Amino acid sequence: MSVDERLNRMQIQLPEPANPVGLYKPSIIINKTLHISGQIPIVNGELKYSGKVGFDISLDEVGNAIEVSVLNAIAIAKFTLDGDLERITGVPRLRVYINSIDTFTDHATAANTASQLLLDIFGDIGIHSRSAVGVSSLPLNAPVEVELDFAINS
Amino acid sequence: MSVDERLNRMQIQLPEPANPVGLYKPSIIINKTLHISGQIPIVNGELKYSGKVGFDISLDEVGNAIEVSVLNAIAIAKFTLDGDLERITGVPRLRVYINSIDTFTDHATAANTASQLLLDIFGDIGIHSRSAVGVSSLPLNAPVEVELDFAINS
Amino acid sequence: MSVDERLNRMQIQLPEPANPVGLYKPSIIINKTLHISGQIPIVNGELKYSGKVGFDISLDEVGNAIEVSVLNAIAIAKFTLDGDLERITGVPRLRVYINSIDTFTDHATAANTASQLLLDIFGDIGIHSRSAVGVSSLPLNAPVEVELDFAINS
Fold this sequence. Notes:
By secondary structure, chain A is an alpha+beta fold. Helix content of chain A is 29%, strand content 29%. Chain A has a single domain (3-18, 28-152), classed as CATH 3.30.1330.40.
């Protein structure tokens, strides 16, 4: 099944690729790797979720915020690859930065939302290594920032 | 001297590769790079060190926690490379995330434990670039998380 | 225009490459990528800016601190490339770690200083993806740490 077919079956419509919040590019291809700038849960130009995990925002909401961020990354990938997500051949690393209070410990549950979505959308190609850390603050008070690189076939 | 010979001489026995705490892979090989998921100081399935550096846990203990995390990463590398650590040709970057209080400043001493261990085990091949940062929280309240990529020969 | 010509026109003199604060290398070349260790605003061996953004140090000063850190990274690149910055063909990713209070939200303004400087110095080659996060502490109480990889032509 193609990535587009999986997205259709999951009834996921990728958003318009979000503009960067700053003087950088949403993505850049170098040496057969598509580097996606850190993504926060922006929807239609507005931050949909905000606040500190464990204080302002629940673990469930964080999961939703992470899904939005991952879809933003995939939307940018699709745009950069001229619509052809089949050019993606692998996901070397997923990094999830969680804007958390000091006593937060459940990074795995939060980051699993991103991992599951990658596996659901890309199948075996979505298998990845992962790092998840809690940070003291994120741009615009986002609860999460997701960083993805994609390996591509040319 | 081979990496295995160095490990023997240092009387280091690599642990069983730890299972990921989540829906991701311990490692993935893409484009001649072995990406190891972020490692925390888990021993036999249990977190051996925990807490915030500068508050719950001393700098010495953090050094031990970092060593355990690095050995976990190398154990995963060995498993992924079918037991042959000689396939490793370089260490592009070591990232050390330290779960620290706001006033912690001695990231270098802590991260040096990881750097020294890489040099002792891999010799010249273990020479690496490094980044060390303090974070507000880590999975399971781990005091450190170590992120390593290895360049491999095929 | 060459990178050196741009630096001249901007009246920027690159510093001596700073020594690492620890047992690692300032840089390493692996697979046509020049990995630069995390850079903090050290000038002549001394940390020029310190403290927590939003508490000890203003956004303007952080901008200056980031510029110093980026120039330190470029100085190391130049040294590693035997003086020839023309060997740089791209900037896959810029990571800016900001030592911030929990309520800091303006990572973009701070990190834009780094992005603008890369574009000014490298032109189109300086176009990059970016991630900016707030961290709880940094080595020596630095307000920022800048992490850069450069793609090179051989």
